[in-house]
Amino acid sequence: MEVVFLRAKVFNKESFFISQIENKHIGDDGVIIGDNVYSKDLFCEGIHFKRSWMSLRDIASKSMLVNISDAIAMNATPKYALLGLKIPKNFNKNDLEELWAGFSTTSQKYSIEIIGGDTIVGNTLDISITIISTSKSPIYRDNIKQGQLLAYTGTLGSVQKDLKRLFQNKEISKTSKFITPILRQEFMQKASKYISSCMDISDGLCHELQRLSKANKISYKFIKNLNNNTLSSGEEYELVFSFDKKYLKIIKNISKKTKTPITIFAKAKRGSYKHKFKNHHI
């Protein structure tokens, strides 16, 4: 009897599951209903972080920041948060106070009120946050036109380098963007009227470009050479955005006034784009 082993085709489970949800709201960093924008992210131990890498205060703060980042990318102002928390069984009062300090400090910085949620006890620290924001003029992913320029804020690549150091049991700077992402709220508030499409860089620039390619049925003519580290570094939470070239001078002026570095790296063209990199998660 001949036994034949068939190699299972690897597929993206997250994308497949999301594809099962059929409604008009799916496809952006948040869901827009009326003037409200609803966004949600999970921040899970063993997937997004290890407790040995960050303080509990930093873990809680980052879990808020990565959710706020989605709202900023859609030109929305965060107002309220719902917090879901799985608390490890061995946590004591001091641990819980440290966690709350991270949630509280970050929410106050962005004028967000934590209005409720749910808690359970388990073996790992897992956080789920829903942010409720408002926006009169939200920015979607699917509004890139051929010939428009694409740019990203800040610098990309440092998070991936720091993540490699953490895997090697080496220390990283306390100011690392892996610990505390830099959000570009002021830049977005001033530049939003000139931006046609935007999303935050959570999974790496190459992943976000592929998503934008699919949403807009476009490809890219790269006008700047980007190395693999720049393309694939995840957890950056910078913004990748498009705009018409007639607004180039205005965008550069806003960049200068808000002290937000930008890199213009491509033009949108007809076609499609697929990257070659693996997912960045643990």
Description:
- By secondary structure, the protein is α+β, with helices and mostly antiparallel strands.
- The protein has two domains: 105 residues, 2-Layer Sandwich (60s Ribosomal Protein L30, Chain: A); 122 residues, PurM-like C-terminal domain (Phosphoribosyl-aminoimidazole Synthetase, Chain A, domain 2, Alpha-Beta Complex).
- 30% of the residues lie in helices and 26% in strands.
- It has eight helices and ten strands.
- The strands form two sheets. Strands 1-2-5-3-4 form a five-stranded mixed β-sheet, with helices on one face. A five-stranded antiparallel β-sheet has the order 7-9-6-10-8, sandwiched between helices.
- It is globular.
- The N terminus is likely disordered.
- GO terms for molecular function: ATP binding; magnesium ion binding; thiamine-phosphate kinase activity.
- Pfam families: AIRS.
- It catalyses: thiamine phosphate + ATP = thiamine diphosphate + ADP.
- Pathway: Cofactor biosynthesis; thiamine diphosphate biosynthesis; thiamine diphosphate from thiamine phosphate: step 1/1.
- One of its GO terms (biological process) is thiamine biosynthetic process.
CATH domain fold name of the largest domain: Phosphoribosyl-aminoimidazole Synthetase, Chain A, domain 2
User: Strand tally, please?
Assistant: 10
Mean pLDDT: 90
Question: What percent of the residues sit in helical stretches (DSSP H or I)?
Answer: 25-40%
Number of domains: 2
Question: Taking strands numbered 1, 2, ... along the chain, how are they ordered across the largest sheet?
Answer: 1-2-5-3-4
- The biggest beta sheet, please? 5 strands, mixed
SSE class? alpha+beta
